[in-house]
Design goal:
By secondary structure, the protein is mostly beta strands. The protein is about 5% helix and about 45% strand.
Length: about 280
């Protein structure tokens, strides 16, 4: 081997060593996770480790009918893709949004996971012409251990985040039927007066079945608003409008059983997340 070849090999080794640590796992295929909706897409996820408990996710959708990558998405709740994750014991919740990556239709999002474990990661999007589609991935996350957040008691009537308390009445939830929940947001024990729209609506509710991981994403409206299609992502509260503390939310849990539920809203210029565990009654 001549000296030029040796120098070239050495430079390549030095260059490779200088690259930042950036581990990528093999691509993960997702499982469709939206009960009652026709599966029209498949999805693939590439996970790259970018730091302790931090991962970069690359998510691509494919049209099942054509086998082609999907490159056009409708904006729903101000975003083209919602990425939500909870760990295997439903004690943590992460909600992020992704930017489109290039022209190939893939999305890229960085997520910080609160603790090690296996996470159920939901990619919630509306490919143009196909309607809402949700795909779930199982993502292992290794890293330094951290304290586990306590789970709320089953059927708890209220939960808190900072000075805000959410009082929830989920007693009317029924499997397979549009059901209405009511919630009141208090701040320091009084109806909150500093609520602002979060992603275009007063509050979000994400349900995940603790039995089969079925997913429901709904949003809340003022309790005095006229009834409409509350479970769709179409109706938004006007930006800048005063938001009431008394809200109602219509959702259709697909099956009876226990669901982890997270209520998210914007209070005091911060996004607040209040967890619940609720039980959905069988269909009447």
């Amino acid at each position: 081997m001549d000296i030029k070849h040796l120098l070239a090999v050495g430079a390549a080794v030095i260059g490779a060593a200088a690259l930042p640590a950036f581990a990528a796992q093999a691509p993960l295929m997702g499982a469709f996770a939206l009960p009652g909706v026709t599966e029209k897409v498949t999805a693939e996820l590439v996970v790259r480790e970018t730091g302790p408990l931090t991962r970069e996710l690359l998510i691509g959708f494919t049209d099942k009918a054509t086998g082609k990558p999907i490159t056009h998405f409708d904006e729903e709740l101000t975003q083209e893709l919602h990425v939500l994750a909870t760990d295997s014991d439903f004690s943590s919740f992460v909600h992020e949004h992704a930017g489109k990556l290039g022209t190939d239709g893939r999305f890229k999002v960085t997520m910080h996971f609160p603790k090690p474990g296996t996470y159920h990661v939901y990619a919630d999007a509306v490919p143009t012409g196909l309607g809402q589609q949700v795909v779930r991935f199982e993502v292992p996350v290794e890293g330094a251990a951290s304290p586990t957040a306590p789970q709320p008691p089953v059927n708890a009537a209220q939960g808190s985040d900072g000075p805000y308390t959410v009082k929830l009445d989920a007693s009317s939830l029924q499997a397979g039927a549009e059901s209405m929940m009511t919630l009141t947001i208090l701040k320091d024990g009084k109806p909150a007066t500093d609520l602002a729209p979060f992603l275009g609506v007063a509050a979000h509710a994400v349900f995940v079945s603790t039995d089969d991981l079925a997913y429901v994403h709904a949003h809340a409206m003022g309790a005095d608003a006229p009834k409409g299609d509350h479970t769709s992502h179409a109706a938004h509260d006007a930006q800048g409008a005063a938001l009431p503390a008394n809200l109602m939310l219509h959702a259709t849990p697909p099956r009876a059983g226990r669901y982890a539920l997270w209520i998210q809203f914007k209070g005091g210029d911060q996004i607040r997340t209040v967890p619940f565990l609720v039980t959905v009654a069988p269909a009447a």
